[in-house]
Design goal:
Helix content: 25-40%
Order of helices and strands: EHEEHEEHEHEEHEHEHEHEHEHHH
Mean pLDDT: 93
Oligomer: single chain
CATH superfamily of the largest domain: Glycogen Phosphorylase B
Distance between the termini: 15 Å
Radius of gyration: 21 Å
């Protein structure tokens, strides 16, 4: 079985990119087709067979792909997959729109239907532009032969917006790496709350900053992104931005924090799983994929509305000593990387056998 991957853009680091790495470990020789590839901002792919589209040679496309949103459909439709038996698109945008021949099986591992066109279109504006892109996106969403979803939340969206059925395969994390501290190493403080995220508007990091400003609580923020300047301007003296860190550095901050704050409505939330695997509770917005992971009062707390007041109310009454690290870690055993890889490979093998018999 000759297999290829397709991913929207290999130019950043985040939860989705951890999924790519896990899949690459299953099929290390499979190439990755993508709109653009930026080796500086995506160092994890330096030894991969990455095959970018014609947009790679367009000035600024690698660093400002959002300027070329109208060209993305053409980029993915231009790829030729004639030499592959199976193509797996991993996507929250245009990669599902590839065109394959009848003899090639196309499986889409959907991170979510395109956020700015469907579930969260109200947050972006430009309705005329979105309407035009939405038409192509819906047509493109009919091209995969099978859908896999990263969560039940995403499964529901796929059915609602694309009218397609899907099976859920939860991504996994490296539970052998993300674990409670076994040394006496201490960071300067252990009283802080933590955010680990790309700093972009839909992540709602501003809620965590405003709530911690209000209560004068220490907050450390790991990550970079387009919203960084605005967030720094609103941050009070108890808020510290740590930028982009290595996995080893991130692990230490997970291990020593009071709790992770997860303020956005996400498709799943791999940082939630990473924090829990380190034995730390999570304070999350009560919506999206986090509701499939967290258990109230056992692994964390929810806040009800996307407002700093709602989050502040939970933070004000938070007691880290009410949680048991071992019990928290035990809740994420089913989300380990090896289980995900085994389930995903078995699913693709089964679908390919079925497709060979009934293309």
């Amino acid at each position: 079985m000759k297999l290829a991957f397709v991913y929207d853009r290999i130019n950043k680091i985040g939860g989705a990119e951890r999924v790519l790495q896990a899949l690459h470990e299953i099929w290390p020789k499979a190439p990755f087709f993508t709109a653009v590839y930026n080796s500086e901002s995506a160092p994890y792919a330096k030894n991969w067979d990455v095959r970018p589209s014609f947009l790679q040679h367009v000035p600024f496309a690698k660093t400002h792909h959002e300027w070329f949103v109208h060209a993305m459909p053409f980029a993915f439709e231009s790829f030729d997959f004639s030499n592959f038996d199976v193509v797996i698109s991993i996507t929250s945008a245009e990669a599902k729109g590839i065109i394959t021949k009848p003899e090639t099986l196309h499986v889409c591992y959907c991170l979510t239907p395109t956020r700015y066109l469907w579930s969260h279109a109200h947050e972006y504006g430009h309705q005329l532009l979105l309407s035009q892109l939405r038409s192509w996106d819906y047509v493109a969403a009919q091209r995969p032969d099978h859908y896999l979803a990263i969560s039940k939340t995403v499964q529901t969206r796929i059915q609602k917006y694309y009218h397609r059925d899907s099976a859920v395969i939860y991504p996994g994390i490296d539970t052998n790496f993300f674990k409670p501290s076994t040394t006496n190493h201490q960071l300067p403080t252990t009283s802080y709350f933590l955010v680990v995220s790309r700093l972009v508007p839909y992540k709602h990091i501003d809620l965590a900053i405003q709530a911690c400003n209000q209560l004068q609580l220490p907050l450390k923020i790991i990550g970079t992104g387009s919203d960084e300047s605005r967030l720094k301007q609103m941050a009070g003296p108890t808020v510290e931005f740590l930028g982009r860190l290595t996995d080893d550095e991130v692990l230490k901050y997970y291990q020593q924090c009071q709790a992770l704050i997860f303020p956005g409505e996400e498709d799943l939330g791999l940082t939630v799983l990473e924090a829990l695997s380190c034995g730390k509770p999570v304070i999350a917005y009560q919506g999206g994929g986090a509701t499939e992971i967290l258990k109230k009062r056992t692994t964390g707390h929810f806040f009800a509305t996307l407002s700093p007041q709602s989050l502040a109310k939970v933070l004000q009454n938070f007691d880290a000593h009410a949680f048991n690290s071992k019990n928290i870690r035990g809740q994420v055993a089913e989300f380990n990387r090896q289980k995900f890889q085994a389930e995903f490979k078995q699913t693709i093998d089964t679908l390919w056998k079925q497709y060979q018999n009934h293309p």
